[in-house]
Give the backbone structure.
Amino acid sequence: MNNFTYSYPVKVYFGEGVAKNSLVAELSKYGKNVLFAYGGGSIKQHGIYDEITTILKETGKKIIEFSGIMSNPTYAKVQEGARLAKENDVDFILAVGGGSVIDCCKIVSAQANCDTDIWELEYTEHKQPNKFIPMGAVVTAFGTGAEMNSGAVITNEDKMLKSALWGASYHFAVLDVNYTMTMPVRQVISGSFDTLSHCMETYFGTPRENNLSDEINEAVMRNVIRNMRATLKNPKDKFVRSELIWASAMGENGILKLGKVTDFQAHMIEHQLGAYTNCNHGFGLAVIHPVLYKHIYKNATERFAHFATTVLGIERNEKTDDELALAGIEALASFIKEVGLPTKFSEMGITDVDYKAIANSTVTTAGCCKKLTADEILEILEECR
Ligand code: NZQ
Ligand code: ZN
């Protein structure tokens, strides 16, 4: 294996009904003024808001609400949160939601402690923030694994970029199955495909020889595929749901990435698509993956062939590596269709968009087996239409 250093800062409370006790235990460690951050209101419809406010009051906190964090959070929303945190001397941020709320708060926590504009700091001065408001995450929509890392994906509407900013890691994350049971099935499938995408993007990075990280990854990918199918059979099955929640966390807690340079080219294309269309992240990835892989598999044929047999269960028989690799990509495309994910951008309502601008602004990644040109990314996008 390649060399690595591993340390992990996020304390995870996982399981059914763990929210109350874990929050009571954790909140006692932090100051009085709590920024309670959430999204567009699903938590109010489903009783989570009432439970959390009760816990915050019982633990003697002053609640400062930061609501309306949209899917694909904007940089303007980050700045709004940072202003609120500063004005109210916030001691602790409690992010309750999916990847969007969780990401937005990572950067709020940094911007509230930093006089320089964070975008400028990270992209112009090439520095990273180093002072943060401590934070806890309560996951109500899983798939991104955002609670497990310190990267945040933020849409800068002025610059037409959806890019990563680096903020704080959460001090703790609560993964209570019960808080996710009201997720629409379409979002469960979208989020779970995002998990699968994180696994694939890690797996197809380098090195591509068999290694422990990738063999654990193969097990996680098989698990996600099996449990996505099981979800569609019985969306109320809490065991299935809990497996998907932990797989989501596994995708981003660093374990699968040990000793690897990750790929994440599908993500870079999807993020820029998101900057121009505000589309659902998992849906965009579902359309892009098979098309991208058809463009690049010849540069890593053996690895794609191995993926086909170990993850998708395709028998080698008389197939060459090339045929096996392609059969794997076809099987991935069929799975995407089978679970009701979109296979074309048009199925996501994306019809009129400047693909050339998206291609030109997409970052190309070091771990991808093929260094794509802007023209090739444009071709991929056109094939996804
Ligand atoms: O906003 P509300 O009303 O809460 O509704 C949300 C939202 O509409 C709803 N929802 C959340 N919990 C629910 C619920 N509905 C019913 N019951 C519940 N328990 O679900 C919808 C989607 O939520 P959102 O947070 O937007 O989705 P997701 O978790 O997929 O996050 C997407 C964002 O994460 C970024 C994506 O780019 C996108 O901006 N990502 C972050 C990553 C990271 N930091 O590591 C990695 C990913 O690759 C990804 O890029
Ligand atoms: Zn993702």
